[in-house]
Amino acid sequence: MSSNKQPEFRSGLVLNPDKFYSPSYRISPFRTEDVAANLQLRQSDLALKELDRRFAGRKWCFTESGKEGIALALEALALKSGDCITILTTSGNFYISGCVTREIEKVCNWSREIQDNTTALFVNHEFGYPYRNLSELRRYGLPIIEDACHSYLADTSACDMGRVGDFIIFSLPKIFPLQIGGVLSFDPSYNLESRIQRGGEQETYITKVMSHYIPELEITRERRLANYFHLAQLFATLGCYPRFELLPNDVPGVFIFTLPMNIDLAALKEHVIAHGIECSVFYGENAFFIPVHQRLCEADLAYFHSVFSSFIARH
What we know:
Elements: E1 8-10, E2 13-15, H1 34-39, H2 46-54, E3 59-63, H3 66-76, E4 84-89, H4 98-105, E5 109-111, E6 118-124, E7 144-147, E8 167-171, E9 182-186, H5 201-213, H6 217-236, E10 241-242, E11 255-258, H7 265-274, E12 280-281, E13 287-290, H8 298-314
Parallel strand pairs: 4-5, 4-6, 6-7, 7-8
Antiparallel strand pairs: 1-2, 3-9, 8-9, 10-11, 11-13, 12-13
């Protein structure tokens, strides 16, 4: 935060505070107080039972992160350096996280279009908006990796997310108040070994927290959707509108929206981060994304609106 900016007050909300007094809003629902709260939770095997039920007929394992899940899936496919993975996304935009491309580049090449040397498809269910024509990808006869890191609660209109691909990857901190953890579900014909060992300390931590919050997942879904609709209403006053059409089985992992033209996206990102809000540009488009998780209340959403309003009013 630039030291020459003075604090500003909007409807009782403080903007441009000293950097040490900024709030912290993450895309993950994890909060600092969860460090202590998670230590107090009772151990339970509810999470293990729920994952066994969800992935019946398939294998699954915990991973340290979504990135480890990608790495394990790529390893299982035994790809060669000359092979190509074609990346497909819900939006069709060229934007793809470096967390994905860097893992692929360790193994082989990647492209956004089907190539002669395409040996697998990587489908990114973007931000809780699943790939719209998933089952049609079977016609290629290629292994499919589904990246559902932001889409634990979402599904396709055909309810087949995770049932088409050979692999599906989830990032657990995107939905639960966790600091580590992912889930990789895969076809039984593959054999994988995660760094997280069954019965080990990391698995104990993950299952304990997941088990506590699994009974609240329907409420989590409802609150995320309520926050989405409230943010859509607030941001419409700024000329900002949801980037994706919200289908019945979508559950947003972020609030992603378009912006008025001629906004300096890099400067906006710096401004929003300086106010303690995790965010990013949806690169390749005049769009942006911010948190929408279930632990945000209306005052938090009003703060987001004020932060953007203060920037847009000056530009």
